[in-house]
Amino acid sequence: MEKEAYKTLKFKGNEYPCCTSLTMGIIGGKWKTVILYHLIDKKLRYNELRKEMPMVTERTLSLQLKALEDDGLVNRKVYTSKPPLKVEYSLTSFGKTLIPLVKSIADWGDYVSENHSDE
Questions:
Q1: What is the pLDDT of residues 78-104, one digit of tens each?
Q2: Between the CA of residue 79 and those of 1, 57, 61, 69, 96, what are the distances in Å?
Q3: Which stretches does DSSP call E strand in 61-110?
Q4: pLDDT value at position 60?
Q5: For the chain, which residues make up each domain, given as ranges?
Q6: How far apart (Å, rounded) are the C-alpha atoms in residues 2 and 111?
């Protein structure tokens, strides 16, 4: 009996066993979807993101922003025309494809908070 070939999904040099694994590999973790949520409607500077997410450490925020940038979801624009240096983060067109998913996750969180918080 021949063994069936195992099909994997590939993204940015990584292999994933299924579509949900790929999705969670890109946006999973405690802070990535939170960052994406705050960037849905506006560009934000690093310190503005920190104010929106006071519980995240600076190191974690930097690492998560870098990972989102490496995956093509977040754009980092550096303005060097005049001091001080200004850096803004925004969603790329690829990142914007996640808006319905991120909004659904946020809506579900609101639902759980309102209806199941005492369980």
A1: 988 877 788 999 999 999 999 999 999
A2: 62, 24, 20, 17, 22
A3: 74-79, 86-91
A4: 97
A5: 31-115
A6: 48
User: How deeply is 119 buried, as exposed, middle or buried, from its count of CB atoms within 10 A (0-12, 13-18, 19+)?
Assistant: exposed
Which residue in the block uniquely carries the two structure tokens 């310190």? 47
Question: Distance of alpha carbon 18 from its chain centroid, rounded?
Answer: 19
CA 92 to centroid of chain Cα atoms:
11
pTM beyond 0.85: the answer is: yes
Q: What pLDDT, on the 0 to 100 scale, is given for residue 85?
A: 83
CB atoms within 10 A of CB 68: 24
Say which CATH topology domain 31-115 has.
Answer: Arc Repressor Mutant, subunit A (1.10.10)
Residue 106: enclosing H or E segment and its boundaries? helix 99-115
Tell me how far apart the alpha carbons of residues 102 and 116 are, in angstroms, rounded to a whole number: 20
pLDDT tens per residue, range 34-81: 999 999 999 999 999 999 999 999 999 999 999 999 999 999 999 888
Closest-CA residue to 32 (of 105, 84, 93):
105
